[in-house]
Structure formats: C-alpha cells, structure tokens
C-alpha cells in the first residue's frame, strides 16, 4: 500500500481540470448540452459553480489515490498508461454504460463523458508514471 502521495495528489488535481476544456465550446459543450436538453442560447449560469469545482476535486483526488494504489509507488510509464486505459475502458466506461442504458441516454452522451474519464486516467498515469 505504499504510494507516492505527492504524485497522487498532483495527479488528482491536474487530472481534474482538463474537464474545463473538454466541456467547453472548444470541444464538447454543444453536443453535451444538446444531449442534456440544455438550451445554450439562454443565459445558463450554474448555481454555486465555484463550490462545485472545489467539491469536484474530492472525487478526482480519491480516484487518483486509488489508481496510485493499483500502480504502486514507482510504476513504469508504459504500464501506468496501459492501466489508465484499462481502468477507464474496463471499469469506468462500463459503469456509465449500464447507468446510461437505464436512463435512456445516448451513445453521444456516453462517449463524451467516458472519453473525459479516459483522458483523466491517462493524465493520472502520466503524472504517476513520470514522477520518480
């Protein structure tokens, strides 16, 4: 159960913030909003956005720490990246798939959200695999 705590914490923080770009007009905001039934032509300001960002860091940190536990304190970069793909593709994405099946969500919505977590776990892997 020995992990590199500094690397895990940095991975959790760094892996969280690409969501700001992923769910922005630069990438997937429009299709994500369409799949959610959100009209972007209306002024939509999420309530308590700052607090949500702060609280959202907690599960990202938990995921990065759990991932670091799987990898150990000094994983090889290739192994870390392969595990990132495996965890996102074989654990996270299937959980979304089951949930979205029963919520009647579209494949587009699934791909956007699962894709973000693939990116997130690859970032975790990069930080943990390079921090030696």
General description of the model:
- With 132 residues, the protein is mainly α.
- 73% of the residues lie in helices and 0% in strands.
- The protein contains six helices and no strands.
- Helix 1 packs antiparallel against helix 6 (107-130), helix 4 packs across helix 6 and helix 5 (77-102) packs antiparallel against helix 6 (107-130).
- The model has no long low-confidence stretch (mean pLDDT 94).
Label this structure with key terms.
single chain; 132 residues; mainly alpha; 6 helices; globular
Structure class: mainly alpha
**What's the multimeric state?**
single chain
Mass-distribution shape: globular
- How big a fraction of the residues is strand? under 5%
- Report the strand count: 0
**Please, how many domains?**
1
Helix content: over 70%
Over the alpha carbons, how many angstroms does the gyration radius reach? 16 Å
Determine the number of helices (DSSP H or I, runs of at least 4 residues). Answer: 6
Distance between the termini: 17 Å
- H/E element order: HHHHHH
Q: What's the story with the biggest beta sheet? A: none
Mean pLDDT: 94
